[in-house]
Amino acid sequence: MDWDTAVFYAVNGWAGQSAALDWLMLQCSSATNFVVLVVAFLAWRAWLDWRHGLLVTSGLGVSIGTGDFLGTLIKSWVARPRPCQVLPAVQELAGCGKMFSLPSNHAVNTAAAAALLGMLFPKTRWIVVPLLLLGGLSRVYLGAHYPTDVLAGWCLGGLLGATAGYLVSHSPLFPASSGK
Asked: Which pLDDT score is estimated for 89?
């Protein structure tokens, strides 16, 4: 058994053992919860300065949209089946999904948001990084992805989010002291 599958089974083996942990992992993997958190943050930024909020929102939209598009293309090129489609004894708590596995688009999107927000607003890193890690862990825990799917998603999303963060931070509309 390769290390990717071994780590998958080690993490996924906890699924179904604790109702509280199952609930937490389902929440960490929920796209709706991710969107609500990001929208709340952006609304707060827009309330402080609408131009600044619009610029950050645009950076997030472009990095997440590009990441989702590229992630879907890569999935079709790599065509790696999900662990819940090919491995025996997978604890599947949230449905298997119909698309391929590599990369995890959840990981792409959360890494893009985390990189951009962490770069522009360093004081948010204490919450952004743990949410990123929990989101990635949840994808393996729920049986939807191998660990390398999540790592690949983080790499792609992190690159896109950091690029967007760099462009936003160098815009004349972005105040230098906004993330302090």
From this structure: 86
The DSSP letter of residue 88 is: T
Whole-angstrom CA distances from 145 to 4, 138, 163 are: 10, 9, 26
Q: Is 52 a catalytic residue?
A: no
Catalytic residue check, 145: yes
CA–CA gap between residue 98 and residue 71 (Å, rounded): 14
C-alpha–C-alpha distance, residues 138 and 132, integer Å: 10
Which domains, from first to last, does the chain contain?
Answer: 3-169 (1.20.144.10)
Please report which confidence band the pLDDT of residue 34 belongs to, taking 50, 70 and 90 as the band edges.
low
What band does 80 get if pLDDT is binned at 50, 70 and 90? very high
SS3 label, residue 103: coil
The one catalytic residue in 145, 150, 163, 169 is 145
Count CB-CB contacts under 10 A for residue 100. 18
